[in-house]
Design goal:
Shape: globular
Strand content: under 5%
Number of helices: 15
Radius of gyration: 18 Å
Length: 302
């Protein structure tokens, strides 16, 4: 058992590239499993939220500046790029407004960062999305309904995916402590669920890119370049903000590590589906950064 446990700990540092590689190799099979993604997101959020100690959740100046960047930068980027290419504008915007990944606390722990600080921001960024996404998507991509109707429609779907697991986790912690304790002991399971979701999303993204044909190669290349630049910049600005508050790792992961699985789903449902290529490729960029960080910190893995 000890050898198996040691093997699993070592495997964690290589899980992200393995998941992406499997997704690319089995892209046809993984694309067929894309219907599972919302359910995986829901379970990952539930396992994340049930581990939250509400006494450790707080709002700080660091979180304020990060949330302000998330909202302001997404809007500014969209309106600057949109006159030139609406698909590129949507793809770049969704890479910024997307909330912090459910796996970010796991990676932050592996990097010896402040997990409580990052968890607080993760919760705040998801709540922010519930408020901001309906307004953004109604204005940008959901034009077949009046603005208020589309905002309400999107709010219901986003809230169901993001808020419901939060409420369930809260009631489990309060009224079913034995169940909460059991789920908390299984918290590492969220990392493997996330790896499965990453495999599916990677395969779905490759399948989607290949199905577009040569006429979309130019926009796909631009989406790749812009998502890469946005990824690097968000890790950089997040670490810079975090460093001012002695939380460099939490800041970098909070802004840089996005819930790309959720972002891809939202783009495909509410925006031009081709725009989902940007968060799909963001998966590669952010997990390349994460893989490098985890590999560099592998001696401290526990």
């Amino acid at each position: 058992m000890q050898k198996i446990s040691l093997l699993l700990r070592k495997l964690k540092s290589y899980m992200m590239p393995i998941a992406m590689l499997l997704g690319f190799i089995l892209y046809q099979q993984m694309s067929a499993l894309s219907f599972l993604v919302p359910y995986l997101i829901f379970i990952m959020l539930l396992l994340t939220f049930v581990n939250i100690s509400w006494s450790n959740i707080y709002f700080s100046k660091m979180h304020f500046w990060m949330l302000l960047f998330q909202v302001t930068a997404s809007g500014v980027v969209y309106y600057l790029i949109n006159p030139y290419n609406s698909i590129l504008a949507q793809g770049t915007m969704i890479c910024i407004v997307a909330p912090t990944a459910t796996s970010a606390p796991v990676i932050t722990k592996m990097l010896n960062g402040n997990v409580e600080n990052l968890t607080s921001y993760s919760l705040l960024s998801n709540l922010l999305l519930v408020l901001v996404a309906p307004l953004l998507f109604s204005e940008i991509g959901f034009h077949n309904l009046p603005f208020l109707d589309s905002a309400w429609h999107i709010s219901k779907r986003v809230a169901l995916l993001l808020i419901l697991p939060l409420l369930i986790a809260f009631f489990i912690n309060k009224y079913a402590p034995k169940t909460a304790n059991f789920l908390q002991k299984k918290s590492d399971f969220s990392f493997y669920l996330w790896s499965l979701a990453l495999t599916i999303v990677s395969g779905r993204t490759l399948h989607f890119i290949l199905s577009q044909g040569e006429s979309y190669y130019k926009i796909e290349l631009l989406l790749a370049v812009f998502s890469f630049l946005v990824c690097v910049f968000q890790f950089w600005i997040g670490r810079k903000i975090g460093r001012k508050y002695q939380n460099t790792v939490a800041g970098g992961q909070g802004l840089g590590q996005k819930n790309t699985i959720l972002a891809i789903w939202m783009a495909q449902v509410y925006l031009n589906p081709i725009a989902s290529i940007a968060p799909g490729l963001y998966v590669i960029w952010q997990n390349s950064v994460n893989s490098w960080q985890v590999f560099r910190n592998r001696k401290n893995l526990n």
